[in-house]
From TrEMBL:
InterPro entries: Transposase_17_sf. One of its GO terms (biological process) is DNA transposition. It comes from Neorhodopirellula pilleata. This is Transposase IS200-like domain-containing protein. GO terms for molecular function: DNA binding; transposase activity. Gene3D superfamilies: Transposase IS200-like (3.30.70.1290).
Length: 386
């Protein structure tokens, strides 16, 4: 069965949950310790994390979970057209121009000026297309992947592909699939025997949330959403030496806004607010993410407890009971508690080749809505659900 088109999986016009996987070319360890040459490229994981953080501050897309491995990355993204609709034309313009300014100064992208913003705002047709792209998962992944590939190729003094190809996407269609997929993503380093437990999985969303609970802060990678006055930009180009401009840009790239934030502040909150209506946009106004809306009906403490318990069930065939309080939560989502360990640890067996993730009845319903007979994984994954 051929892989469905992106337009059949998700649309910028509706809120969708998407599990995205992007692999390095030939699955080489281009972001870890190369087993052949012995060269350590692990520092590139921080490149990827900071780029994700920067894009989360301008796109109408929530980053729910992520894991950066040595030869691939996982992300669970949620596009937010409802949030983007609340942004003014000027906000949309500056957000877009921060990522795609269309001009270069030396080898760097030029910073948008007030005149650039006004020009885009006046072009209503172009602005409408830009507003749509800011809600598009494909454009988010493009803005993430391309700069990383350019930086790595420049560093290695080579040309060609860094990534294997276009990212793989899985549409997540219900709460059960979302919880299981999120656990699978957060436990990727444990499954790969890189870490013994979630507390050692550094480049994951679970690690960021756990460290933020302890108060850890990092330099914010969020874009500065204020355009430069046109006159000031011109004066700088005319009067400032090129070397000074390069130093200034280098400093600004490290911390564009000069702020320090909690390590997980750019991620979507994990727990949904019970007192808010599901239709509320919950627009974020702090400049580090698009919204303040959670994605699971589960407290962080419960999520962390279940994650740690699942991480310990690494030996196949060894049966251990899920803590009773957490077992009730899983059962309420329609998950067979006795199969929870198998579902997370053997995710690839059940949903590795599926374009859709969720309970069998949810997958069947979504297939009918999209004009398909069924989804791959619909039958094999049924054993994990009550």
């Amino acid at each position: 069965m051929p892989r469905p088109h992106r337009s059949q999986q998700f649309s910028p016009e509706e809120i969708c949950y998407v599990h995205c996987i992007q692999r390095c070319v030939r699955r080489a360890w281009l972001a870890g310790v190369d087993p052949v040459s012995g060269v350590d490229y692990s520092f590139r994981k921080e490149w990827i994390r900071r780029r994700m953080e920067a894009l989360a501050s301008v796109f109408a897309i929530d980053v729910l979970s992520y894991a950066i491995m040595s030869n691939h990355i996982h992300q669970i993204l949620r596009n937010r057209p409802d949030v983007c609709a609340q942004w003014s034309d000027e906000e949309v313009a500056i957000r877009w121009l921060r990522v795609f300014p269309g001009r270069r100064m030396e080898e760097h992208l030029a910073e948008p000026t007030e005149n650039d913003v006004k020009t885009l705002v006046r072009d209503k047709k172009r602005l409408a297309e830009v507003r749509r792209r800011l809600c598009d998962v494909s454009w988010f992944m493009r803005a993430l992947s391309e700069p990383i590939a350019r930086m790595a190729n420049f560093q290695d003094q080579c040309t060609g592909r860094f990534w294997e190809g276009r990212f793989k996407a899985q549409r997540i269609i219900d709460d059960a699939g979302l919880l299981a997929c999120s656990m699978y993503v957060d436990l990727n380093p444990v499954r790969a025997a890189i870490a013994g437990g979630p507390e050692g999985c550094q480049f994951t969303s679970a690690y960021d949330r756990a460290e933020a609970q302890k108060g850890e802060q990092v330099d914010s990678a969020a874009f500065d959403l204020k355009p430069i006055p046109t006159e000031e930009a011109g004066r700088k180009i005319r009067e400032t030496p090129v070397d000074d401009l390069r130093k200034e840009r280098k400093v600004k790239r490290r911390n564009p806004t000069g702020r320090r934030i909690l390590r997980d502040a750019w991620l979507s909150p994990l727990t949904m607010k019970p007192d808010n209506l599901s239709g509320e946009a919950e627009v974020h106004t702090g400049g580090v993410r698009s919204s303040d809306r959670g994605f699971l009906n589960l407290a962080w403490e419960d999520y962390w407890e279940l994650l740690c318990w699942t991480a310990k069930q690494s030996v196949q065939g060894v049966k251990a009971e899920v803590p009773a309080r957490l077992a009730k939560r899983l059962a309420a989502l329609g998950i067979d508690v006795s199969m929870w360990r198998d579902l997370v640890w053997n995710w690839q067996r059940y949903f590795g080749k599926s374009a859709c993730v969720g309970r069998p009845e949810s997958m069947k319903q979504h297939a009918e809505q999209t004009g398909r007979h069924h989804y791959r994984g619909q039958g094999s994954g049924a054993v994990c659900f009550a």
